[in-house]
Amino acid sequence: MGTLGWIIPPPRRPRKTRGQLRGERAERVRRLMEEGLLNSGALVEAMMRVPREEFIPEEYRDYAYLEVPLPIPGRGSTISCPHSYPLFYEALGLDRGDSFLEVGTGSGYGAALAYEVVGAMGRVVTVEIDEETYRFAKRNLERLGYTKIHVILGDGSKGYPPLAPYDKIAVTASCPSIPEPLIQQLNPGGRLIAPVGPADYPQDLILVEKELNGSIRSKKIDEVLYIPLRGEYGWRARTYRV
Ligand code: SAH
After folding, report:
1. 126 lines ligand 1 (CB under 6 A)
2. Active site residue 84
3. What is the DSSP string of the chain?
């Protein structure tokens, strides 16, 4: 990640108490709302409820509520910075009852937030390609009781056909272009969000809408920085450094 320009704070033994971290969580949520980055009531509640610090390796835990991505086990994997979750989920219009696919489980934090939003009537499927990252996420989610989330080890650039179609899809790694199988696995009326572009800043954050008649509209909504998507519809290993 260093090569991508983020400054990762130095690892250190955690010193903050649970209470301190809970306070920082409330403060982060308040700031995101104040800055106009977080507006949906369901997502505010989710961000208040899900302990982000539980999705971060011990040596970075004290930094849980800083606006930076942090390293997690696996090749180049990170937990994205806090504001990126409302950025993605509000653009998607993620809602109660949605069937949601996440490509790039990472820490599992984004899947837990999504689960809190879609609720028991919805469904969260998340796919991770890196086995070490997958194991880390699965452990985190199980420890916190998120046993209904479908955590899949595999190439999410091809989506996950067994549980398709999906109402909403989020790709949390940067794609060369929107992977065709993901568009196919999107319900009519559904939305997909993905960073598109090479491994160096900036990548375009693209929101795709599939109309009820099946036609596709897409627009750029922001510029972001994500690690490269691997797999069949991702970047080939030689084309990027992490
Ligand atoms: N959403 C995560 C952050 C993801 S970081 C969170 O909330 O913590 C991006 C992740 O995408 C990395 O873990 C990386 O291993 C994974 N990834 C990259 N290419 C992938 C692919 N083709 N399929 C599934 N996961 C992929």
Report:
1. no
2. no
3. -GGGT--PPPP------HHHHHHHHHHHHHHHHHTTS---HHHHHHHHHS-GGGGS-GGGGGGTTSSS-EE-SSSS-EEPPTTHHHHHHHHHT--TT-EEEEE--TTSHHHHHHHHHH-TTSEEEEEES-HHHHHHHHHHHHHTT-TTSEEEES-GGG--GGG--EEEEEE-SBBSS--HHHHHTEEEEEEEEEEES-SSSPEEEEEEEE-TTS-EEEEEEEEE--PBP-STTS--GGG---
